[in-house]
Amino acid sequence: VSHALPAVWVNGERQPGDGRHVSARDRGLTLADGLFETMRGHGGTVFRLERHLARLTGGLRALEIPVPPRLEAWVRAAIDDAAPSDASVRLTVTRGIGPGGLAPPVDVRPTVLVAVGALPQYSPATYERGLGAHIATGRRNERSGTAGLKTLAYTDAVAGFLEARRAGADDALFLDTEGHCSEASSSNLFVWTGGLLVTPPLSCAALPGITRAAVLELAAALGIPAAERPFGTEELAGADEAFLTSSLRGLAPLVRVGGRPIGDGGPGPVTRGIMASYRDLVARECRRP
Amino acid sequence: VSHALPAVWVNGERQPGDGRHVSARDRGLTLADGLFETMRGHGGTVFRLERHLARLTGGLRALEIPVPPRLEAWVRAAIDDAAPSDASVRLTVTRGIGPGGLAPPVDVRPTVLVAVGALPQYSPATYERGLGAHIATGRRNERSGTAGLKTLAYTDAVAGFLEARRAGADDALFLDTEGHCSEASSSNLFVWTGGLLVTPPLSCAALPGITRAAVLELAAALGIPAAERPFGTEELAGADEAFLTSSLRGLAPLVRVGGRPIGDGGPGPVTRGIMASYRDLVARECRRP
Known about the structure:
Two copies of one chain form a homodimer.
Chain A: E1 8-10, E2 13-15, H1 27-30, E3 34-42, E4 45-46, H2 49-62, H3 71-82, E5 86-94, E6 111-118, H4 124-128, E7 131-135, H5 155-166, E8 171-175, E9 181-184, E10 188-193, E11 196-199, H6 210-222, E12 226-228, H7 233-237, E13 241-246, E14 250-257, E15 260-261, H8 269-285
Parallel strand pairs in A: 7-8, 7-14, 11-12
Antiparallel strand pairs in A: 1-2, 1-6, 3-4, 3-5, 5-6, 8-9, 10-11, 10-13, 13-14, 14-15
C-alpha cells in the first residue's frame, strides 16, 4: 500500500508530492549550486525559523544567488497546508536553470522548493542508549571555498555515512584535513571533558548549526562552562560524554566511537541534562500564541 | 525570442526540454548524491563514450548506486534524436528519490537523465590567445571520500569560478590542501616545463579526465616526455607553457595566472602541436562508419 507523498511547494506554488518539480537543467541538480535548510516543525510552528532563514540568506549572498523575497511566506504556507504536529521542513534554494557550464546565466531565477514531511522515525534507542560513530576515511575540508555554508554538496557526507554503515556504526564522524574532529555526517559534535563542554570551532569545517548555537546558549544559561576549540580523536575517545546535535534529531548521545565506549558507554548526566533543557527550550519557543 | 530547449531523456523516456523532469525529493538534488559525465558529440558519435561510461559506472559502484543497465542505449537514443553536428551531451545518474536524511532507501531506483545541447560558444580567443586563471582561495580536498569521482558536488567549483570572474580572470585554478596545483574549475591542467609535459597526479585531487588521458596517450605517441607529478604555483608561474583540458572545450592554452604571463604570454609551440594532434585524434575516432 503506497500513500500519497505530501505536496511540494515550487516557487510558492503547491504541486503534487509524487510529481516532477525541477528541470534537469536546474543548477541545483547539475552542479549542487544551491543551499538548503532542514527545520523541525512543531504543531504549525518552526523552531527558530528566523535563524534558519538568516543562515540561508547569508549563504545565498556568499554564492551570489539572488535572495528570493518570499521565502518565509512560502515556508509558512507549506506548513499551514501540511500542519502535522511534528514535521520535517526542508527549504531548498538553487540558482535555477542554467545553460550548461559553470558560468551562471545573466538572468538568474532561483528555484525555491519547500517540502514538508513526517519527522524521520528515530528509534527510542537513539536517545536512550545513544549512537556509535565510525571515523570516516574521507576528511572534511576546512579550506573549501564554501566551508560553513549549508550547500547541496552532501556527497561526501553520504559516502561517509555509507562507510560507517559498512563498519556497523550509526553515523560517520569526520575529521578536518589537519586531523581535528569536525562534525558527523549531518550533525554537530559536542564533548564533555575535564568539566568543560567543547565543540569544534567553525574553522574545523563544522557547520554553524542552529541546534549547536542553541546548546551553547543553554550552557551559558545553565552555568556550564563551554568553549569552541579544536580537539582530536584522542580527546574525543577520552571524553567523559559526547553528543550530536541537529535540527531534526535534536540532541542524541554519542556513546561509542570506532567501536570503543566514550566514558561509561552510555548517555551521561551532563548530556541528559542538556537534552532535557533543550526539549524545554523548544517547547517554550514553539508554543503557539 | 525564446526557442524550445532540446528534449531531455528521463530514464529512457523523451520529455520536453522546458518541462520539469525530476522530483524535489530526488537525492541528486537534495544531497548531490549522484554522478555525471559531460561528453562531446560529433555528428552523431560521442568521443570515447565507452571511457565516459566506464568512469561513471566505477563511480556508481564506489557510491553503492546500482548501475542502470541501459545507459549506453539511452545516450545513443538521445544523440540520434538531437543529432546536431557538434553537441554537448550530459549524462547524469542519481540515487533517485529518497525519504529524507542520508540513509538511502532500501529500494534504490536511480534517476538517469540525458540532455543533449548545443556546444557552448567558446570564443576563438579561447584557443588563439588563451585563457587567464585566478588561483582560487578555496582548496580542493585530495583527502575527500569522493576525490577522483565526478560527483554532482560542483558548488566549490562554482564558488571558485565566481571568485575568478570577480578577479577579472577566465577561470579558477585550484590548489589542493597541501598547496599543489590540482585542476581548474572544470578542466585538468598541464604544464610544459624543462622539456617535460607535467600534469598533477590524481593524488592532488585532479579528476581522471578523459581528455587528460588522451593527451597523455598523444604525448607518448608523439615522443613528448610526460609525467604525472605534483607541482606548486612557482613551477606553474615559471613554466614555458600551460594548457587546460576538458571534454567539451578540448585543449585551451593557459597563458596567464594571477595576472602574470606564463612563458611569453601566448600559446606556445608544444601546446599548439598537441592541440592539433588532439583535433586529429577526435576527427579520426569520431568518423562515422
